[in-house]
Specification:
This protein is an all-alpha fold. About 65% of the residues lie in helices and about 0% in strands. A two-stranded antiparallel sheet has the order 1-4. Strands 2-3 form a two-stranded antiparallel sheet. Strand 2 and strand 3 form a beta hairpin. The chain is globular, with a radius of gyration of 21 Å.
Length: about 350
Amino acid sequence: MTRIAQLYDRRGWLYLAWFAAVVLIVVPALRLLVPAGSLFHLSDYYLLLVGKIMCYAIVALALGLIWGYAGILSLGHGLYFALGGYAMGMYLMREIGAEGQYRSHLPDFMVFLDWQEFPWYWAGSEYFFVALLKILLVPSLLAYVFGWFAFRSRIKGVYFSIITQALTYALMLLFFRNNTGFGGNNGFTDFKRVLGFSLAHPGTRVAIFAITGGCLILTLIVCRFIVASKFGRVLTAIRDAESRAMFSGYNTRDYKLFAWTVSALLCGVAGALYVPQVGIINPSEMSPANSIEIAIWVAVGGRGTLVGPLVGAGLVNAAKSYLTIAWPNIWLYFLGALFVIVTLFLPQGVMVLRRGGAK
């Protein structure tokens, strides 16, 4: 406990406590207790928007852990986000039961394609505990296998980034196929319940929002624990001079592989929290553009800190939510310009503007 208490100074813990109070008490109270006509009532739209941004913040933290502290730039982290989302989506599809359009125990897309039973990889997906295992294991196991081969072959730098993007693109094309049992182009949607509770009920939405906020806080503490430990210092040494770390006796492959796997696991959790809030998961979440956008969040916020990716994810997604409604045609131009400006004038991200900020 003492070691955990030392992760942050008093001001840092106060910031965390303030954030926890907002997401666990203030926001639920504004949504559930304040009448709909009141100025202080929080609508479902803003509850969903902030919930989505918190999911993105977890992904940004995951990428910031390996890019900012280990020097590993992934352009395919959207893959692990989507895999966690699909694992949750399979469970939510089973929760629909026979209330689909075709009144079958099979999802509508399977009935439409004349499937007679669930494929083997859907086994146990009707149980939340099994879904939870898949959310944790599928992204992390894929990351472990990919990372084992990549780090063993000493692939790094731009070559590693390109391979991660190629893997994401290949799996996106696979999931687009109707015969894979993942809904093809449309993916999974029309969810109705989670653990027997209606997803349309305000109490359920608030509960998922609060769980997402709790997971974001836990992710921040876990990442802080990693980077503040000896393990984190070795990661930084690998980022700055991997050969020197190797000559000092460290097995750099194992360090990178552990951080890489943890990062993928966190993305899977974020994807699982994202799906019941948004109500859909499809292969577009694996698109290379989405993964590049995640890297932009981290670049804008600032690498080498944990607060930076959080700030970047919040700023960019808040701007995206506004611009795609107000001026939908300029969003991509804005995103490109933002990345160029940050690269040229703020290579350490906007966090460099706040010198002495808590890491």
